[in-house]
Specification:
There is one protein chain. The protein is α+β, with helices and mostly antiparallel strands and 222 residues long. The chain contains 9 helices and 4 strands. α6 crosses α8.
């Protein structure tokens, strides 16, 4: 089978994992760019001529179609799988719920996560009041997800959907870098959900074995 297209961007990255996981689930072949250098390849005149914002990842289809944003790419790949796939939901209501969770993850949770982790990793200047505010939002959204996942295996319905792919990938750094064993004990339903989803074969094929945080990441030297 010829590749559906190429996912362009650094490969060991949660935002790229989404499309790759969906490709494994659907059995669609997806080309990748393992030598892509973030901050270099997405700043070239050629790249910026195609994608002026310099965002990654982007998808370039074999048919000439292109799209950016990790969740949009994952959604497109799921849609290309056709009626055989239930990743996008089986009813209008399920599809609406799927989009609700995707938008929550991307618009609410991820900015709080970045505001919490980026200064500690040295990717942004550490300003204590701003970091405290981001951390408060981070834990508020973690609590929201934990509550919503009580008695649920999947975020929508009774089977894996693209909402699980997006939510689990957006949670990845939280569980790897910030949520310690003590934290995870406070959010048992979210922890159960995350460990169950990332143990799915398609996730393990892309993520490998996810090692949970032992010690919370600390402030890097500024």
């Amino acid at each position: 089978m010829a590749p559906l297209g190429t996912l362009i961007g650094p490969m060991p990255n949660p935002r790229n994992f989404k499309a790759r996981i969906v490709a494994v689930i659907t059995g669609l072949e997806l080309g990748t760019t393992p030598d892509f250098q973030m901050g270099v390849d997405n700043k070239t005149p050629e790249y910026l001529a195609k994608y002026p914002a310099g965002k990654v990842p982007v998808f370039e289809g074999a048919d000439g179609f292109s799209v950016s944003d990790s969740s949009a790419i994952a959604y497109y790949i799921a849609a290309k799988a056709g009626s055989e796939s239930t990743l996008l939901g089986q009813t209008a209501e399920e599809t609406a719920e799927i989009l609700q969770f995707i938008l929550f993850a991307e618009a609410d949770f991820v900015p709080a996560l970045i505001g919490t982790l980026a200064p500690l990793m040295g990717h942004a200047k550490f300003f204590k009041p701003a970091h405290q505010q981001a951390e408060e939002q981070f834990f508020r959204f973690i609590d929201v997800l934990n509550t919503q996942l009580i008695n649920r295996t999947f975020v929508v319905g009774e089977r894996l959907t693209i909402a699980d792919v997006v939510v689990a990938c957006d949670l990845l750094y939280s569980f790897q870098m910030y949520l310690t064993s003590e934290d995870r004990d406070k959010y048992p339903d979210l922890t159960r959900y995350f460990t169950t989803i990332t143990a799915e074969p398609a996730f393990k094929a892309v993520l490998g074995d996810v090692v949970l945080c032992d010690k919370r990441i600390e402030l890097a030297a500024q």
